[in-house]
């Protein structure tokens, strides 16, 4: 899994022209991927913040789905020429992603590790879930801060 | 011009405590926002503290001590321009409370602070842990808009703070007036004729 994620991000730098999809479609698919990540995160975040009752099974399933998503081959979602400079209004992905793939990779690894840790504890009660979700949400923020614009 | 100066009660304890509490709360919120942990709970608490300070100061601006009330220090453009003309001179201002130019800063910084608190509480950074408490009541588009204003506003506030400190240095070096001590002790050396309710 770890290897897969790293190779994914490295491959993204060289993915130019590998797939002949319209840039808008790339951005749309990328947002769809993160919409799925966010969907599972919303469930976990809701539980961690007490907005939704904790349910060990639901929490474990969401954590597992996140783990599944980390196995998604994202290189073709990061085709160059699909930043918010190239596609204003369609994506918030900053051009910094493509100029600093190493940094993105680091943030991605932190996210992946937090997802793994979350999977270890998601079913062990709310007190175990909360810090793991906090840590995972922190890895979302760290990447958003550097590589995603606040607004379209 | 030689003024006959008297030790004068200038800033009441509410104004002084709120001022220094704001210094601490603002820099805590700013520092945590920029450099703090990714789980921003402490930034939120610092922001709520700023919110409470702003609300109390606005209320005090209507019901507080003489020098704290907006009606006593907010002036029209004529007086603002007249006062602004005296800024370059070496003559001490000996103002009893906020001068007409300072009044613009006071009202301005309260407005920008209120905007900063509001945009922070409306922000949704979509990390599911640092979501502003009011974000759930607005659309995601509004929550993103709020997020996009929150950081630029923090820089505007930092510039306002620097201007504020710059003005204090100006008064000290150019006019020989110490504005810091009265904000700590509450007392300033002023000519009696400058105190409205003594005339």
Automatic annotation (TrEMBL), chain A:
N-terminal signal peptide: 1-20
Keywords per UniProt: Electron transport, Heme, Iron, Metal-binding, Signal, Transport
Molecular functions per Gene Ontology: electron transfer activity; heme binding; iron ion binding
UniProt PTM: Binds 1 heme group per subunit.
Highest taxon above the source species: Bacteria
Record flagged with keyword Magnesium: no
Protein name: Cytochrome c556
One GO biological process term: electron transport chain
One GO cellular component, as annotated: periplasmic space
Residues annotated as binding heme c: 140, 143-144
Automatic annotation (TrEMBL), chain B:
Domain Cytochrome b561 bacterial/Ni-hydrogenase: 11-186
Membrane topology: Multi-pass membrane protein
Record InterPro entries: Cyt_b561_bac/Ni-Hgenase, Di-haem_cyt_TM, Hydrogenase_cytochrome
Keywords for the protein's UniProt record, in alphabetical order: Cell membrane, Membrane, Transmembrane, Transmembrane helix
Gene3D superfamilies: Transmembrane di-heme cytochromes, Chain C (1.20.950.20)
Pfam families recorded: Ni_hydr_CYTB (PF01292)
GO molecular function: electron transfer activity; heme binding
GO cellular component, one term: plasma membrane
Domain of life: Bacteria
GO biological process annotation, one example: respiratory electron transport chain
TM regions (residue ranges): 14-33, 45-66, 101-122, 153-171
Intracellular or extracellular location(s): Cell membrane
PANTHER family assigned: BLL0597 PROTEIN, NI/FE-HYDROGENASE 1 B-TYPE CYTOCHROME SUBUNIT
Protein name: Cytochrome b
Organism: Celeribacter persicus
């Amino acid at each position: 899994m770890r290897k897969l994620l790293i190779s994914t991000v490295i491959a993204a730098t060289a993915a130019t022209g590998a797939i002949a999809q319209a840039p808008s479609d790339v951005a749309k698919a990328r947002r769809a991927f993160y919409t799925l990540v966010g969907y599972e995160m919303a469930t976990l975040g809701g539980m961690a913040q007490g907005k939704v009752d904790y349910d060990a099974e639901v929490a474990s399933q969401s954590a597992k789905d996140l783990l599944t998503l980390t196995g998604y081959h994202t290189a073709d979602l990061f085709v160059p020429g699909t930043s918010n400079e190239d596609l204003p209004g369609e994506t918030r992905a900053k051009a910094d992603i493509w100029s600093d793939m190493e940094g993105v990779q680091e943030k991605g690894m932190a996210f992946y590790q937090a997802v793994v840790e979350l999977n270890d504890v998601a079913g062990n009660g709310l007190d175990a879930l909360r810090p793991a979700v906090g840590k995972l949400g922190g890895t979302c923020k760290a990447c958003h801060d550097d590589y995603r614009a606040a607004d379209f | 011009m030689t003024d006959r100066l008297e030790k004068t009660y200038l800033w009441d304890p509410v104004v002084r405590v709120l001022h220094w509490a704001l210094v601490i709360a603002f820099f805590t919120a700013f520092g945590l926002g920029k450099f703090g942990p990714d789980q921003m709970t402490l930034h939120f608490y610092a922001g709520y503290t700023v919110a409470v300070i702003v609300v109390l100061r606005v209320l005090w601006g209507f019901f507080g001590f003489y020098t704290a009330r907006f009606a006593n220090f907010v002036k029209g453009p004529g007086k603002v321009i007249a006062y602004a003309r005296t800024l370059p001179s070496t003559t001490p201002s000996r103002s009893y409370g906020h001068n007409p130019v300072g009044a613009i800063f006071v009202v301005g910084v309260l407005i920008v602070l209120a905007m900063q608190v509001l945009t922070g509480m409306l922000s949704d950074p979509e990390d599911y842990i640092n979501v502003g408490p009011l974000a759930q009541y607005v659309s995601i588009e509004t929550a993103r808009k709020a997020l996009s204003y929150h950081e630029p506003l923090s820089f505007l506030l930092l510039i306002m703070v620097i201007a504020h400190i710059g003005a204090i240095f100006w008064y000290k070096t150019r006019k020989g007036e110490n504005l810091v001590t009265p904000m700590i002790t509450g007392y300033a050396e002023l000519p009696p004729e400058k105190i409205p309710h003594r005339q």
